[in-house]
């Protein structure tokens, strides 16, 4: 003897099953959309940081001007330059071996290193960079090394030519 379904119960069960299936589909759809949004946000964040970094870092500037106008920004930028030296320039020993301990006191040496940094950022960290920009940068490495040798060649680990010129302040 079987118990008959109460009236409408079977129809209700079919309805609930169909709704559960639809919810499952919606959940999958939402998961896909969420993943797509996550990727878009990540991409945007990358674009923004690349653009902000490139616009700020490749605009030519003169350190004394920046230090006078905005010391905090100058300090921030100097930290970026140091980070670039530690992470990128360190691989170019032709250049780094010319950087005597006193190089930061030589305005011309700072200008050469800064120009190398800005052109590197332009070649490797901007969306408009072309392959030739990187080639040019690589080809300029010996020139940068030569310029630094000319500026710092008379300085050593414990002595700086500026000490003689400026009368013993360094
Ligand atoms: Zn020196």
Which characteristics define this entry?
170 residues; mainly alpha; 0% strand; binds zinc ion
Describe the structure.
With 170 residues, the chain is mostly helical. Helix content is 73%, strand content 0%. Helix 2 packs across helix 3 and helix 5 runs antiparallel to helix 6. The N and C termini lie far apart (107 Å). The structure holds zinc ion (ZN). The site of zinc ion has 9 residues, from helix 7.
Which ligands are bound? zinc ion
Shape field: rod-shaped
As for the number of domains, it is 2
Cα end-to-end separation? 107 Å
Low-pLDDT stretches are none
Rg, rounded, reads: 31 Å
Which class do the helix and strand fractions yield?
mainly alpha
Q: Helical content, roughly? A: over 70%
Mean pLDDT: 87
What characterizes the major β-sheet? Answer: none
Number of helical segments with 4 or more residues? 7
Query: Helix-strand pattern, N to C?
Result: HHHHHHH
Count of strand segments: 0
Fraction of residues in β-strands = under 5%
């Amino acid at each position: 003897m079987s118990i008959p379904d109460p009236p409408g119960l079977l129809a209700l069960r079919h309805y609930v099953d169909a709704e559960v299936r639809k919810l499952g589909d919606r959940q999958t759809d939402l998961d896909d959309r969420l993943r797509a949004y996550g990727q878009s946000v990540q991409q945007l964040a990358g674009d923004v940081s690349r653009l902000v970094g490139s616009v700020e870092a490749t605009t030519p500037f003169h350190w004394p001007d920046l230090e006078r106008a905005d010391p905090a920004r100058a300090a921030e930028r100097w930290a970026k330059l140091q980070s670039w030296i530690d992470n990128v320039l360190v691989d170019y020993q032709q250049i780094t071996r010319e950087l005597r301990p006193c190089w930061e006191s030589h305005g011309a040496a700072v200008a050469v290193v800064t120009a190398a940094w800005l052109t590197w950022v332009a070649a490797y960290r901007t969306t408009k960079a072309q392959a030739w920009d990187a080639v040019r940068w690589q080809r300029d490495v010996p020139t940068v090394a030569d310029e630094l040798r000319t500026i710092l060649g008379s300085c050593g680990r414990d002595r700086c030519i500026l000490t003689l010129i400026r009368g013993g302040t360094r």
